[in-house]
């Protein structure tokens, strides 16, 4: 999700898709925290609706698979547009991921100091196991928080300051896969390499890396002019229906391929199908290019990074204080959502935009490293 579509390639609707997916992740984590019955992972007896295609609206696992697939596609196209050493791409990618991640950890650290038991108090009322994936009371110091955001999330693949940061390691490693596969000039060699790594990802049940491979293949097909609309409506419907059960161990689609239950490769394929359908159907494109999806795409990165710390602290505290009044909590939730969007918008303009500008400057500086200076000879 930490990849921006270049406006010149006329695919800005993918920004809208990323924004819609980010909202789905927020909805999923709200359900995990306060209505665990809407999730299979955190409910002993899930509500019937989770087994229907409607669950696609809050299936956070599918949304993250869409993020990974979009990253694979957009990064591959970026490599094709601009020649740059792999090492410098990795440096820039690490900074692109680590700076926002570390800032979100600092926000979480500050909020957890202000609301040290909010998640525990809310968990006692909702029975949500998800609210246990955060620090409470015994909070590490500030240097430990900085280490968590800049280093640990990429080594461990998770964070108790902000559990949404588990995606940072797959994003970095998946990016490296994209950069390396894109090295050969021959497109057929690139496709064969991608397919080989995709098979390995399937055999290892690593759906996150299979998503990057599928994104690479979409980019290669588009570059070759072979991404033609073949029954896009059917493909999109397949992606939404199958994807609605992504990450669910008891899914009726689990085991259709070579993976295990909730992490079967069928779900990355569903994510790719949704992207393909979005790229092929003009009605979907027009919707995703509308003001609301485009706004959500603009704020998608801070929205994704900040919503978990805000749920675990401010909203959890409000829930514990308001419980059992459902109506009052709905009002508090509406206020919280507006606040989340405002904060995300400010972060997108004050932090995200400046970071991208700085990365552009650094990219130009790194591009000059290793160049042989031109020495002009002057005759005496």
TrEMBL record:
Acyltransferase domain segment(s): 12-340
Molecular function in Gene Ontology: acyltransferase activity, transferring groups other than amino-acyl groups
InterPro entries xrefs: Acyl_transf_3_dom, Acyltransferase_3
Keywords of the record: Acyltransferase, Membrane, Plasmid, Transferase, Transmembrane, Transmembrane helix
Keyword ATP-binding: no
Domain of life assignment: Bacteria
Annotated transmembrane regions: 20-44, 56-79, 91-112, 191-218, 230-246, 266-284, 296-320, 326-348
Protein name, entry field: Acyltransferase
Organism: Paracoccus liaowanqingii
Taxonomic lineage: Bacteria, Pseudomonadati, Pseudomonadota, Alphaproteobacteria, Rhodobacterales
């Amino acid at each position: 999700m930490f990849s921006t579509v270049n406006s010149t390639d006329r695919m800005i609707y993918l920004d809208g898709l990323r924004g819609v997916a980010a909202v789905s992740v927020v909805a999923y984590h709200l359900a995990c925290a306060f209505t665990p019955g809407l999730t299979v992972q955190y409910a002993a007896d899930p509500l019937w609706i989770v087994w229907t295609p409607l669950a696609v609206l809050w299936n956070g696992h599918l949304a993250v698979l869409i993020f990974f697939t979009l990253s694979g596609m957009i990064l591959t196209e970026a490599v094709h547009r601009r020649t740059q050493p792999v090492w410098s791409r990795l440096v820039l990618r690490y900074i692109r991921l680590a700076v926002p991640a570390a800032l979100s950890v600092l926000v979480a650290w500050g909020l957890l100091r202000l609301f040290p038991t909010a998640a525990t108090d809310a968990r006692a009322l909702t029975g949500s196991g998800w609210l246990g994936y955060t620090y409470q009371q015994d909070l590490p110091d500030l240097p430990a928080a900085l280490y968590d955001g800049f280093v640990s999330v990429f080594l461990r693949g998770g964070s108790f300051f902000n559990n949404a940061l588990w995606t940072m390691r797959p994003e970095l490693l998946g990016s490296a896969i994209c950069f390396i596969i894109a090295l050969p000039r021959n497109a057929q060699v690139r496709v064969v390499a991608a397919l080989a790594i995709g098979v390995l990802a399937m055999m290892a049940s690593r759906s996150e890396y299979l998503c990057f491979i599928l994104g690479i293949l979409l980019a290669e097909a588009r570059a070759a002019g072979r991404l033609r609309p073949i029954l896009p409506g059917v493909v999109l419907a397949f992606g939404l229906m199958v994807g609605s059960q992504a990450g669910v161990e008891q899914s009726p689609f689990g085991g259709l391929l070579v993976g295990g239950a909730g992490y079967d490769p069928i779900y990355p394929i569903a994510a790719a199908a949704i992207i393909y359908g979005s790229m092929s159907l003009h009605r979907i494109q027009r919707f995703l290019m509308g003001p609301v999806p485009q706004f959500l795409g603009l704020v998608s990165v801070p929205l994704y990074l900040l919503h978990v710390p805000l749920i675990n602290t401010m909203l959890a505290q409000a829930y514990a204080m308001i419980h059992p009044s459902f109506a009052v909590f709905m009002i508090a939730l509406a206020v919280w959502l507006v606040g989340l969007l405002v904060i995300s918008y400010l972060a997108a303009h004050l932090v995200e935009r400046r970071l991208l500008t700085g990365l552009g400057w650094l990219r130009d500086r790194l591009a000059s490293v290793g160049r042989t200076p031109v020495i002009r000879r002057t005759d005496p």
